[in-house]
């Protein structure tokens, strides 16, 4: 590629369409260019490449549990996580995700550490790249009947059943599912340690957030679109002013 015959804007437009594997070929040519503006593009590309390399190392470390299980012969390893154990309103949602081995997903992490915009983007990527995705939803009235821990486990069980491919091992964030006869391992803070659990945390979080956004349309005075049903000051003030809704968890509001 002859960058000398291109303007800075043309170079930047060209680089936008290039895969990261080609950056190493372009950086020396950009840095050798006599134009300082082009050299700055080279430096920017170098920093981008370094950042990407660091990110690939981080994501590679998230494959630890899955690769250890692969050594034992497991192939369809599903990560499980939930969203919505703590809120005062709405369902608890669980997700199960089976990923193809060695998949690199830029930015994947515990859903709580990612912005809403980034979660939405990763949600689409995971659904596109995953071998299978299952979701389980347990509503607030059931939570009141059986308690939140049992409801969470029920949602996880539904998520496993809804996988398009049968899992041969479950990696679960801090929970054990005694009713499911599939070998499993509970991982404390698993959404920060396992890529499959991290993927499940994103699917569960985005799914539940979308549900609460829909409830906001029905009960706009409660502000569900902003706090998603969690016990914020705004939420408690809305309850005091308007009372509880059919989607509130009465067992969580006994003191009121």
From TrEMBL:
<feature type="binding site">
    <location>
        <position position="82"/>
    </location>
    <ligand>
        <name>a divalent metal cation</name>
    </ligand>
</feature>
<dbReference type="GO" id="GO:0030145">
    <property type="term" value="F:manganese ion binding"/>
</dbReference>
<comment type="similarity">
    <text>Belongs to the RNase HII family.</text>
</comment>
<feature type="binding site">
    <location>
        <position position="173"/>
    </location>
    <ligand>
        <name>a divalent metal cation</name>
    </ligand>
</feature>
<dbReference type="InterPro" id="IPR001352">
    <property type="entry name" value="RNase_HII/HIII"/>
</dbReference>
<dbReference type="InterPro" id="IPR012337">
    <property type="entry name" value="RNaseH-like_sf"/>
</dbReference>
<feature type="binding site">
    <location>
        <position position="81"/>
    </location>
    <ligand>
        <name>a divalent metal cation</name>
    </ligand>
</feature>
<dbReference type="InterPro" id="IPR036397">
    <property type="entry name" value="RNaseH_sf"/>
</dbReference>
<dbReference type="GO" id="GO:0032299">
    <property type="term" value="C:ribonuclease H2 complex"/>
</dbReference>
<dbReference type="InterPro" id="IPR024567">
    <property type="entry name" value="RNase_HII/HIII_dom"/>
</dbReference>
<dbReference type="Pfam" id="PF01351">
    <property type="entry name" value="RNase_HII"/>
</dbReference>
<dbReference type="GO" id="GO:0005737">
    <property type="term" value="C:cytoplasm"/>
</dbReference>
<dbReference type="GO" id="GO:0004523">
    <property type="term" value="F:RNA-DNA hybrid ribonuclease activity"/>
</dbReference>
<dbReference type="GO" id="GO:0006298">
    <property type="term" value="P:mismatch repair"/>
</dbReference>
<dbReference type="GO" id="GO:0043137">
    <property type="term" value="P:DNA replication, removal of RNA primer"/>
</dbReference>
<keyword id="KW-0464">Manganese</keyword>
<keyword id="KW-0255">Endonuclease</keyword>
<protein>
    <recommendedName>
        <fullName>Ribonuclease HII</fullName>
        <ecNumber>3.1.26.4</ecNumber>
    </recommendedName>
</protein>
<dbReference type="InterPro" id="IPR022898">
    <property type="entry name" value="RNase_HII"/>
</dbReference>
<keyword id="KW-0540">Nuclease</keyword>
<keyword id="KW-0479">Metal-binding</keyword>
<feature type="domain" description="RNase H type-2">
    <location>
        <begin position="75"/>
        <end position="256"/>
    </location>
</feature>
<dbReference type="GO" id="GO:0003723">
    <property type="term" value="F:RNA binding"/>
</dbReference>
<comment type="function">
    <text>Endonuclease that specifically degrades the RNA of RNA-DNA hybrids.</text>
</comment>
<keyword id="KW-0963">Cytoplasm</keyword>
<keyword id="KW-0378">Hydrolase</keyword>
